[in-house]
Amino acid sequence: MLTPLQKRFRYHFRGNRQTNVISKPEWYLAQVLLWIGNHTQFLDEKIQPILDKVGSSVNARLEFSRGLMMLILEKLAADIPCLLYDDNLFCHLVDEVLLFEKELHSVHGYPSTFANCMHILSEETCFQRWLTVERKFALQKMDSMLSSEAAWISQYKDITDVDEMKVPDCAETFMTLLLVITGKYKNLPTASRKLQFLELQKDLVDDFRIRLTQVMKEETRASLGFRYCAILNAVNYISAVLADWADNVFFLQLQQAALEVFAENNTLSKLQLGQLASMESSVFDDMINLLERLKHDMLTRQVDHVFREVKDAAKLYKKERWLSLPSQSEQAVMSLSSSACPLLLTLRDRLLQLEQQLCFSLFKVFWQMLVEKLDIYIYQEIILANHFNEGGAAQLHFDMTRNLFPLFSHYCKRPENYFKHVKEACILLNLNVGSALLLRDVLQSTSGQPPATAALNEVGIYKLAQQDVEILLNLRTNWPNTGK
């Protein structure tokens, strides 16, 4: 059955025939798939029963396919040396062979243990060329995706449900490129070949990270700008996807293979081998760590920028006359200090801007980092630097609890818990005189002994140390005149 087909194949795809075109491997690959498909029913219904009858273990369809596969392997062995140094032709051949292999295994059930094209692609000369060409074309694609006009725009920006990560187009295209490369090499017969491709992918991630860093450095003057935020979203997305891939069965198997190679070559310390073996670390850990460091640096720069603006806007508020403000009973209704308006407006505008430009997880880290700095700043530069009469303490409490904290209520249920220093300072400054006297006496009587934790907890103080509480109590001016 195979003989006439072999003759036809060699007639059409050898020598000077018009059908033998080195740039058209799809012609002979499609022809073989066609023959396999056309003979399937006949082999299964007519030939297989005869073999079964005589107790043969031969599978007619698979043996027929294997016979035709030998023609393909012969043809590839003859053609590959001729197009090894024409990148476009070689790349086209590899793509066509991979499509052929995919259909052969998925549609026609050809076993991967039988001779197949992946063995030829794995031969040293051909494989090294394949790696080189993949790298070259990947770098070209990276150039074009980063220079595209739409590089930093999310293609899902108008679809809120899909656009949670706010991924710029270049980052998504890059991860798709890596995914395509994985699809190409995942069926290679040996782990060592797969690991070489994995190294290529890691090199590409590193290259892309360096390119993102370069673009980011051009944007550092505008660290709240659209492009800077897009780069940050890109770094976050790539890191998240790599962390996700690290748990994928295919990459876990590669990690196991890498472990065996490292153990043989003694290239890692016992600690590193132990981490890989226990799955504590993954094949992408080095990449993820570098991306996370870049992400943290970029976020820190944004937080510092906003924090500088907020400090500038708070200059008037710092100079507020806390010592001589009217008490609550002297005012018809409490209102926000006018000197606090620039501070709160700056804060509100920057939070709204970054909420729109950063993805949810990044924005959450951003505002929490900002609040941490803000809490310490207000506590040290405004509260500890002033003295407060009853009206001043009440005004500070109103400004903080009714105006500053609610700015963050959109992002968490209890924003005051992120302003622990400020919240507890407000409590101490606004304690009624009797409770404040009692607390001061307790603290003074226990000085040198274990801190009066219970007494502090009773009034709602958990964060501040005992000496801080004493300092804050001394900032109050509304103590009764006891003649001391």
UniProtKB/TrEMBL annotation:
PANTHER family: RAD50-INTERACTING PROTEIN 1, RAD50-INTERACTING PROTEIN 1 RINT-1. This is RAD50-interacting protein 1 isoform X4. It comes from Bos indicus. InterPro entries: EXOC6PINT-1/Sec15/Tip20_C_dom2 (IPR042044), RINT1_Tip20 (IPR007528). Gene3D superfamilies: Dsl1p vesicle tethering complex, Tip20p subunit, domain D (1.20.58.670). Pfam families: RINT1_TIP1.
